[in-house]
Amino acid sequence: MLAIRASEDPFGKVKKMIQDMVYKLMEEANAEAEQKGFCDAEMGKNKMTRDAKGTAVEELTASIDEMNAHMTKLGGKIGELSAQLAELDAAVSEATNIRQEEKTKNAETITEAKAASTAVEQALGVLQDFYEKAAGAVLLQAPVQASAGGGVIGMLEVILSDFERLAANTKAAEDSAQKEYETFTTESSQDKAVKEMQVKNMTEEKAQLDVDNANAQKDLESTQSELDAALEYYEKLKPQCVQEVESYEDRVARRKEEIESLKDALKILDDQPIS
Description:
The chain is an all-alpha fold. It has a single domain (11-270), classed as Helix Hairpins, CATH 1.10.287. It is built from 4 helices and no strands. α2 (12-134) packs antiparallel against α3 and α2 (12-134) runs antiparallel to α4 (248-270). The two termini are 28 Å apart. The relative contact order is 0.13.
């Protein structure tokens, strides 16, 4: 029977070897196609992840840098405003002390001038009364006394006028100084209120930036970890999906030619197409 079969199909063994090779090549092609599909899917997802996480890391880093710069700027402005507020308080305190001293001194001057004016007025009254009575006396010394009395009275009147002018000028100076002081303190108070509000707003903004910055730092760490994981997975995929001397398309074409050649050989041996 063996001899009969051999005589019937002398190339059976060769044909079987060729068929086995064709099947093996087809199995390799299917396995490689599956591997190609896996690589295309995984590499595609990995690239999307790496691109997305890389962009997110760049954006978060830029945002953190911007927030740090803005917080530094705010800190500088808050420091400047705080220094200005301290200067304002010192200026108001100094102006208040000076004003109090001036007010006390002016009050004393006005009081003394009024007291002196009262005393001079009283002295004038006494002298005028005396010389009016003396004017009616018939004495040889009367003309001399009248002349002397007129000189004393005139001098006292000048002194009285000086004291009255001193009191008036001091009061005018006091009123002007008080008005200037009130204007200064009002403007300083308004300026202080504006600066305090600016400090308050900037301090609140800086505090919010601190919170946002801390959250961004956490997001950056998490995103960076995800990017590192994607890069690590990419390195694992490279040996089987990237680092190839021959491309997938070239291997497919080469294997197809090899299969066709084997099929042609079978046709020659069997004179029948292989399905």
